[in-house]
# Entry
Amino acid sequence: MTFSFTHSDPIEIGVDSRGGSIEWAYPQVNNFNIMYMGASGVGKTHTIQQMLARVFVRQTTFHVIDIKGDFGYSNFERAGLANYVSPEDFNDIRFNYFDGASINPLQVPRTPEGGGVLMTIESMKVLVKTFSPNVGVKQLTYLTEILKIVYKNKGILHDDMESWAKPNPTLIDLLEQIDLIFNAVTSGLSSESVADIMNDIGKTKRKASKEVANMRALEEEEVVIADKVNELASGLIDSITAIIKKQINLEAVSKTGVGNGDVWEYWSKESLYGLRSVIQGMVDSRLFTGNPSRTIPGKINRYDLTDISPQHQQVIMRIIANRVLAMGIMETRRNDSFNPPSPTHVLVADEGKHVKEISQSPLSPFNRIGTEGRGYGVGIWAGVQSPDQVTQDLLKNFATYFVLATPEAAAGDVSRMFGIKPSYLKQLVPKDNILFSAGSTYSLVRHFRD
# Structure
């Protein structure tokens, strides 16, 4: 079915206890953030699906973090929403440890609000710490210095915004740079010498492989082919010997304590190797170096995280939130459309406890969307089981509330924090009604019956 709704056209939430229609529209609320709160199994996910479908046909791009597999097209179809959405409306981005999607954490946002190279490096440090909590301060300091070199090698400079659009480095580039530095620290040679040696080895190996293939195609004898390979190897030995003699001679070794000028000359090999192991683990997970994920404007972009661990889910969630905020900022600046009446992008996280776990800092991407997103046309919808699953920054910045049947143990907190009378909470029936508020008093509503 084709719809021509706009955000000015209200959505009918349901009817109140007196039979009156309860309607809602984005232009009527202070921000684009919505909280869905209720115990497990009371219909929270169903309620989010109902709202999502109705808002989607009013032309909003969605980014849904799907941890349990509840937001595929088949889920909406079973919820009776096939008249709102079709399979073509979904862009499924699946993450796994084999051939799934990936996100490059070294991608620099192309707007100043994204913080440029420096903020990207800081975000990468947080991700590495999340990926491997045992990473120490020294290793994170090393990581900062190495990333600066990696970006410089790509021609990307923090103070040159135009350079941010260049092809960004990947974790493979980072790993190669760590290997270069580790070999320099271990050997005592300069990084330039180590790089020259590694490059010469690579070039010679490629040339030898090509020569072998050509000679075998010409049906040369194996002994002749072996001689050719040995000849190339001898040339490589001469090249490497020259590099070593340049570094290890009477003049060079007499300069005790002077060093070769590399900032990492006195770095701990053990700490550097530990950092390398962490980055290698991130590469091996294929979550950051596999098929690049592609979001599509005007779609329900579903990030399927069901096949990865909770720890990795949180890592990917953080990157997704950063990307969504960056998209909103970039589009707002490009179109000069600050403080729009309705959102361009909405981030949906049904498992709010994961959001809280990775949002302890006020500058975390989820908190920033909650507190700053309104000006950039970005909102966050969070599904939680109790108020303590949301950060205080987010809790203060929801304009719309759907309160479903709550656990009895949490009723006191809900009543106190949201000003809901305990008698109202007792009237909530799982999968039947909600307490609804859009910046005013709460109404008991039998919701989404059409």
In short: Residues 121 and 144 are 7 Å apart (CA to CA).
